[in-house]
Write a structure and sequence with these properties.
binds magnesium ion, binds iron/sulfur cluster, 4-stranded antiparallel beta sheet, binds adenosine-5'-diphosphate, Rossmann fold, globular, alpha/beta
């Protein structure tokens, strides 16, 4: 794992709604390293899926850049501004796996046809036998038995359906995959199988992942680094162990305190978050967490805190991040 593979700069995605502009993703900047898994965590509605979709241009961004490193030369291509011709090539390099594969798998297609679809749409094989070999190999890679090739999605359990979704996303040999809550809809024992599969695939093919989840315990097991989102912004970003041992943002501290202590090896007081998440339509102008933060002072309501590197490689967007570090260690 080295260097920056994707650089996200001041990315914004606003939706026009009847009540005004909804700030789903609001000025986020970060980088993703080649071969790493970046966990993206935060409560439902904080903008994780929107950000994930903007990264691979399933959604057009409102402003900002998503720079993807070129395979040749040292340059970057801004995926948010790529032409249709450039996008056709980039589509092969970036993929997504959704939470609920059932809703995005055409129920009238068999397993075989579903996995063949991206190969056919992109005109990858002219030779039928070659395509047959590729489909068999993809089924084998994701652990789908050959006998299932004529089955339909409704005949399969959630785990197998997710394996189809993964096979489809791997069909074009991508480099970067956004995993949007890939196990949230699955039974706990199947979750572990799919997480293991994703992990094995990454080891074998050196994929770069963004792993989205509302559940910090899940991202903890799969991520190299974790970004915490709150109301459209990244409030903390750190190597995963350090995020758990030394959370610098009061929101991360509250999220962590909600994980049962038995699951953590650190002592922690339970922080009850009061108040609701503010509306993304008129988000607070300064610190978006101020209305719920037990450390909030006047400056928090007047000046937005920038995401700053507080410890090496450990970023937080809080005026009192350094003081919070003391609070954690004195708790
Ligand atoms: N197409 C859309 N039109 C309007 N608002 C949207 C749309 N998609 C998402 N949103 C809003 O953007 C915010 C972020 O949503 P989302 O990215 O789905 O969050 P998450 O994945 O973290 O649950 C939410 O307030 C959601 O209601
Ligand atoms: S900037 Fe202020 S309100 Fe915002 S998280 Fe930090 S201490 Fe709390
Ligand atoms: Mg989502």
């Amino acid at each position: 794992m080295s260097g920056s593979y994707i650089r996200v700069e001041n990315l914004k995605k606003y939706f026009a709604t009847k009540r005004g502009m909804l700030h789903a993703v609001d000025d986020v900047s970060f980088e993703i390293k080649k071969g790493e898994t970046l966990g993206l965590v935060g409560e439902s509605g904080c903008g994780k899926s929107t950000l994930g979709r903007c990264l691979i241009r399933l959604l057009d961004s409102t402003a900002g850049k998503v720079l993807l490193k070129d395979n040749e030369g040292g340059g970057y291509t801004d995926i948010t501004k790529a032409s249709p011709r450039e996008m056709k090539e980039l589509r092969k390099r970036v993929q997504i796996v959704f939470q609920d594969p059932y809703s995005c798998l055409n129920p009238r297609l068999s397993v075989w046809e579903l996995i063949a679809e991206p190969l056919i749409v992109n005109g990858i094989y002219s030779d039928k036998n070659e395509m047959r070999r590729r489909i068999r190999s993809l089924m084998d890679t994701v652990g789908l038995a050959e006998r299932l090739e004529n089955s339909y999605p409704h005949e399969l359990d959630g785990g197998r359906r997710q394996r189809i979704g993964i096979a489809r996303s791997l069909a074009l040999n991508p480099e970067f995959i956004v995993l949007d809550e890939p196990v949230s809809a699955l039974d706990v024992c199947i979750q572990a199988q799919i997480l293991n599969l994703l992990n094995d695939l990454q080891k074998e093919f050196a994929y770069t992942y963004v792993f989205i989840s509302h559940n910090l315990s899940v991202v903890r097991h799969v991520s190299d680094r974790i970004a915490v989102m709150y109301l459209g912004q990244i409030v903390e970003l750190s190597e995963y162990r350090e995020l758990f041992s030394t959370p610098l943002h009061p929101y991360t501290q509250a999220l962590l305190s909600a994980i049962p202590l038995a699951k953590l090896d650190v002592k922690r007081e339970r922080i009850i978050l009061e108040g609701d998440v503010p509306s993304p339509i008129e988000p607070p102008e300064a610190c978006r967490f101020a209305g719920r933060c037990r450390y909030a002072k006047d400056i928090c309501r007047n000046t937005p805190p920038a995401l700053k590197e507080i410890l090496p490689g450990h970023f937080a967007a809080c005026h009192y991040a350094k003081e919070n570090m003391q609070n954690v260690h004195n708790a």
